[in-house]
Amino acid sequence: MEKLIELDIIKRVVLITEENPIKSKKGLYYIKDNFFNFWFRYVFPNKSYLEIENYDYVLEKIKLDFHIYTSFVFEEIILESFNHLNIPFNPQKVGRYWDKDVEIDIMAIKDKEALIGECKYWNQPVGIDTLKDLKQKANYIKDYKIKYYAIFSKAGFTNSLKALAEKEGNILLIDVSKNIL
Fold first, then answer.
1. For the domain 84-175, what is the CATH code?
2. Displacement of CA 112 from its chain's centroid (Å)
3. Are 88 and 110 in contact (CB under 8 A)?
């Protein structure tokens, strides 16, 4: 694993809340390069079908969960671009949070304050239910006071969510179709 990390093929991701990330036993490993990731997810497992030129079958298999694959890539793009976003504070750390009960796509922390975010790579506008789910996830964050919520969307937001975000003031709605990351 160390050699693959050194070659910049995989990366180790630890919880944003880890005090000592290098010694953490909660790390997960991911393929860094999207081309390799695509290859090992879709091409390599279907190599025999491709060799006999059964392209339609492979294409149908890819179509079944390509939206899941692209949603993970979308999250990575948001994480990599986070420093270029206009958020209300300058975070010390940006990353992910997960445990057995919850997964938070984006979390930014500074001292004991936090921003938690959700990434939605959907073809329809994101609504209030996503914000409710995000606030529910915030209940699992015990050591940080949640100051801000952020939702990143491929296709914008419903008018009701926009109105609520304007009213509450601590909700950031980032429509990536209108913002270049």
1. 3.40.1350.10
2. 22
3. no
Distance between CA atoms of 75 and 91, rounded to whole angstroms?
Answer: 18
Q: Which residue bears the tokens 């298999």?
A: 61
Q: Where are the domains of the chain?
A: 2-77, 84-175
Distance between CA atoms of 148 and 113, rounded to whole angstroms?
Answer: 9
Please name the amino acid found at residue 14: V
Q: What does the alpha-carbon distance between residue 175 and residue 166 come to, in Å, rounded to a whole number?
A: 15
Residues 35-66 have pLDDT tens digits of: 999 999 999 999 999 999 999 999 999 999 99
Q: Please give the structure tokens belonging to residue 133.
A: 């789910």
Report the first-to-last Cα separation within the chain, whole angstroms.
Answer: 31
Which pTM does this prediction carry? 0.86
- Cα 18 from chain centroid (whole Å): 18
